[in-house]
Structures are given as C-alpha cells and as structure tokens.
Amino acid sequence: MKGRVFSGARPTGRQHIGNYLGAIQNYVKLQQDYECIYCAVDIHALTTLEGTENLKENIREMMLDWLAAGLDPEKSILFVQSHVPQVMELHTLLSMVTPLGWLTRVATFKEKARMQPHNINYGLVGYPVLMTADIVLYKADTVPVGQDQLPHLELAREIARRFNYTFGDTFPEPQALLSDFPAVIGLDGVNKMSKSLDNHIELAATPEETGERIMTAFTDPARKYRSDPGHPEICNVWRLHHFYNPNQVENIAAECRGALRGCVECKEQLAQGINAALAPFRQRRAELAARPQYVEEVLADGARRAHGIATETIREVKERMGLI
Ligand code: TYM
C-alpha cells in the first residue's frame, strides 16, 4: 500500500522561495509515490492574524503557487483546513491527552508570545495540537516540512504515541521529511526567510522585483571594497547559487575569494538564475489565474475527498474513547 503524506502551510499570501526549497519541491516529488494531502491551514493562520479580510484572497494566491509549482489535483487532495471541520473536533479530543507543559515549552510558542505580547491567545498554545490533528486525521505517516517545523513534528509523534498507548493503536507516528534546503536564510543574511520579516522573494514576483530585492541582500560583511577577498561560505547569496546556479558554485566561490568578482555582479547572476528557473512557473501561474473558478473547483473537490477520510477517522477515535 502507498504511504500517505500530509502537509500544510499558513495562507499568509504568496509563497516565497524558502517555502519552495524547504517544502513545496518535496510536495511535488512525493506525488509520484504517495497518496498526498496538502492543506491551506486557515485556522492556524488565525492565531497570528490581526485582521481576516485578506484570508480568502491569500488562500487563492497560495493555491495558485502550489498548482503552478506542479501540485496536481488529479493526484493529490488540495483543500482548506476549515472546510473539513472534523479537524477541530479531533483537536479537542487530542487536547485531553496533551499535558499543558508540553505546549508551553515549545520554542515557537515562546517566540510567538514574545512577538505578539498583546495577543497570547489560547489558539497559540494549542497550535501544535491542531497541527497533530491535521496530520493524524488523515493517518499520514510522512510530513514534508522545513526545519522550523521539526519541534512540532516531535510533539505530534508524542501526542499520537500517548493516544495510542491510552486508547489502543490508532495513529501512525508521523515522520518529518526534510529537503536539501531545509532552512533557507532571508535577504538579511541571518534570519530564516519569512514573509513576516520581509526578507523574502516571492515565487510569483516579476523578474524586475526579483532583481531589485536581491540587490538588497546582505553578503559578506567583511567585504567593503571589490578588491577585498570574500568569504562565500558565510554569504547567503552564494548559498542560493547552490540551487539556482548549481554548476557554477565552485567557480563563483573561487572568484569571490580571489576578489575577481563583485557582490553586485554575483547578485545579478543569482537574479538571472532565479528568474530563469521560475519563468515556466510564472507562465503557468498566469494561465491558471486567468481560469475563472478553477481554484474554487479544486478546493471544493479536495474538501469532499478529505471529508470522506476524516469522517472515518473521527468515528474510530470516538469509538476508542468510549464516546460512541
Ligand atoms: P508555514 O506556513 O510557516 O510554512 C510552510 C512550509 O514552508 C516551510 N518554510 C521554510 N523552509 C525552509 N526555509 C524557510 N525559510 C522556510 N519558511 C517556511 C515550513 O517549514 C513549512 O513546511 N505550522 C506550519 C503549517 C502546518 C503544518 C501542519 C505543516 C499546519 N499544520 C501539518 C505540516 C503538517 C506552518 O506554519 O508552516
């Protein structure tokens, strides 16, 4: 039997190259050998959103990115978390086997509480429980994610294990699957690439926007003048060349170390590499965006298929817990 994959992302808008290199490229590859389920986790997005007026549009933008990147609704289930409400039921049931201390210890909870001290809501504490519910509702065994999600996956395994121990074997313990680029650094050269830090490059940006943003990227701080020898191993632009100009990385590093190339030309070359790699994606995205109702149809069909699996699991969970 084929294994089952689940993954999700918060619909905060268009996806960036960190999302792609860390997660989406694996979503696409896994479609060959697994039964795949990919979800826009709108309820999770509510834990940090100040306003919800853009939520629907953000879901559409994210889905266009996923579809243009190669997710195939004939092969995979693509849906919106809140359209299959059983996940919220399972979240409540799983919360009964999750000690509060496990949740308040999670680094991402502490980080979010620090970033939004005015809004440390109950949903933030339960974030990893809802994420566990996402995965185990579909009995997924494989979860493609970036490195930042590993603590959540660790907790998901612990919650699944505890449920199985208490009520009998029900859920597989989900394993994370990392890509070769599990932690893409942003244009500031230090932090994880992320929309909230505005250090990102959107997949759907125009070639001009991509070039302009890359020009703002931090490189080797020791390199003040073009004649200073560079240190590519600490330069994020060089790291990105590994993906977008893979055959030239050694050459670029040698020229940088020998002060034979400047950071501006290095960035121009990176922008060219990114724009060349993304040209077919951008073309497909524009075509999909022009098809009226296409995304809505994909999501309606996805919700219907996900609903069938979710209903089965909830029935089994309730039986095991003595509720029915
Ligand atoms: P989110 O929306 O923050 O990110 C979506 C996916 O992109 C990966 N990612 C990165 N990978 C490498 N480098 C980066 N700079 C980078 N930024 C983001 C993330 O690791 C993630 O895989 N909690 C999740 C959403 C979620 C989920 C789930 C994931 C909810 N339920 C169940 C898997 C399974 C999140 O906020 O991802």
Report on the architecture of this protein:
The chain is mostly helical and 324 residues long. It has two domains: 4-183 and 292-321, Rossmann fold (3-Layer(aba) Sandwich); 207-286, Tyrosyl-Transfer RNA Synthetase (Orthogonal Bundle), CATH 1.10.240.10. Helix content is 53%, strand content 7%. It has helices spanning 17-30, 42-46, 55-69, 86-95, 100-104, 107-115, 122-125, 127-137, 150-167, 207-215, 236-244, 249-257, 263-289, 294-320; strands at residues 4-9, 35-40, 77-80, 142-144, 175-177. α1 links the parallel β1 (4-9) and β2 (35-40). It is globular and about 75 Å long. The relative contact order is 0.14.
**Secondary structure: helix percent:** 40-55%
Q: What is the residue-mean pLDDT, rounded to a whole number?
A: 96
End-to-end CA span:
29 Å
> What is the CATH-assigned architecture of the largest domain?
3-Layer(aba) Sandwich
CATH topology of the largest domain: Rossmann fold
- Globally, the shape reads globular
Strand order of the largest sheet: 1-2-3
What is the H-and-E element order? EHEHHEHHHHHEHEHHHHH
CATH superfamily of the largest domain: HUPs
Largest sheet: 3 strands, parallel
Q: What's the CATH first level of the largest domain?
A: Alpha Beta
The total of beta strands comes to 5
